[in-house]
Specification:
The structure is a single chain. It contains ten helices and 17 strands. Strands 1, 2, 3, 6, 7, 8, 14, 15 and 16 form a nine-stranded mixed β-sheet that branches. Helix 1 packs across helix 4, helix 4 crosses helix 10 and helix 6 packs across helix 7. The protein has about 375 residues and is α+β, with helices and mostly antiparallel strands. The chain binds zinc ion. Zinc ion (ZN) binds next to helix 4.
Length: about 375
């Protein structure tokens, strides 16, 4: 049902356009036109000003011909990592490569192409479906800025799929950590180190005591990590150091568990610093919301049923990274990440097996069909 040559042609067309993060304008124009051709009422949102990009996220919606079925959402990001000056695709033994001077751009054009071909298949074959919404984001590779700043009121769907994971199609990522940073400042009192050190309070020593009081660091358990990644303090060897700051990175897919860890860590640090006569300031920065989707939820049920029907090697997995899907979940849309088959991403050796691209497209079609039965 899918048109393999059309998929390869569209992939070649999309990766030929330069699209570094924050300068996705040319790519967005092509995508906008394709959505228009599909009758999907394209819209470019307002994130460009906040992101500092040449264009916003591109949205489209294909109205359903069925009622009372879940509205399905697909997303992929438009930007690619450098060098992405426009890729020349080399086809060899069923595998797509760049010519070695750029990344292939399969991250994430594989996702975009699979979504477009699936939409065409649905329309050409008059397959019954609910509403299908799509969004193609900017600046994913530099902190998921397009997804982060988008207006969540634009989301009109019940279940979501991000086509941006590593591994073979069929693999589904239903957990990814929430990521917070604790920016900690320890304030002591400066004094001359040789003449009157007793008048000072040494913030470096207090910070050391506070850090030593943290009971565990690195991998705390299979889903939780804590890392002290940065420290800075003191002015000169002959001055009792007045100020020392450090940053702790903490990750866990379970919100409440991470909240507890944050509180416990703040407590330990505060006690140690105050016992030494210092003052502590702790700023909690929320960097990325979690993906934590139950395996019995509808979004998972639909994709597993779809991929089993296709005979794909299906599996559920967690990931330690942060991608657009984290932010969509933060905006309230349950979204899992689908593996696209892309390999060696972020290098000029990136490649993509044609068969994986075809499987991914079939999976999107099958997700739409399966959702229509729910
Ligand atoms: Zn990606």
């Amino acid at each position: 049902m899918i048109n393999e040559e059309r998929i390869i042609a569209e992939f070649t067309e999309l990766v030929a356009v330069p699209c570094p993060s924050k300068d996705e304008r040319m790519e967005a124009d092509i995508i906008y036109r394709k959505l228009q051709e599909l009758g999907m009422n394209p819209q470019i949102d307002e994130v460009a000003a906040q992101v500092g990009s040449s264009v916003g996220n591109v949205w489209g919606i294909l109205k359903g011909n069925l009622e009372n079925v879940p509205a399905v959402f697909f997303e992929a990001h438009m930007d690619s990592v450098a060098p992405t000056t426009g890729t020349t695709v080399i086809r060899k033994n069923g595998i797509l490569y760049s010519d070695g001077t750029t990344t292939l751009g399969g991250d994430d054009k594989a996702g975009i192409v699979a979504i477009f071909e699936a939409l065409r298949v649905i329309k050409e074959n008059n397959i019954p479906h609910g509403d299908i919404q799509v969004c193609f984001t900017v600046a994913e590779e530099i902190g998921c800025l397009g997804a982060k700043f988008l207006d969540k009121n634009l989301i009109k769907a019940d279940i979501g799929y991000s086509l941006d994971g590593g591994g073979k199609p069929g693999l589904v990522f239903n957990a990814a950590p929430r990521l917070v940073e604790l920016e900690v400042k320890v304030i002591g009192k400066s004094a001359h180190a040789g003449i009157e050190p007793e008048k000072g309070i040494n913030s470096i020593m207090l910070a050391a005591q506070a850090l030593a009081a943290i009971p565990q660091y690195g991998r705390l358990d299979e889903e939780t990590t804590l890392n002290v990644g940065k420290i800075n303090g003191g002015l000169a060897p002959n001055i009792v150091a007045e100020e020392t700051s450090f940053v702790i990175d903490m990750r866990c897919p379970k919100n409440e568990k991470l909240d507890q860890l944050i509180e416990a860590t703040k407590q330990v640090l505060t006690t140690a610093v105050e016992q030494g006569g210092g003052v502590i300031e702790i700023n909690v920065v929320e960097n990325c919301p979690a993906i934590y989707i139950d395996k019995n939820s509808k979004v998972v049920e639909v994709v597993l049923e779809a991929s089993n029907k296709l005979g794909l090697n299906t599996g559920l997995q967690g990931t330690g990274g942060c991608s657009d899907a984290n932010f969509f979940n933060g905006h309230g849309l349950p979204m899992v990440v689908l593996a696209t088959g892309m390999e060696k991403v972020h290098t000029t050796e990136e490649f993509l097996e044609e068969e994986d691209l075809f499987d991914l497209t079939k999976l999107v079609v099958e997700i739409i069909k399966t959702a229509a039965t729910k």
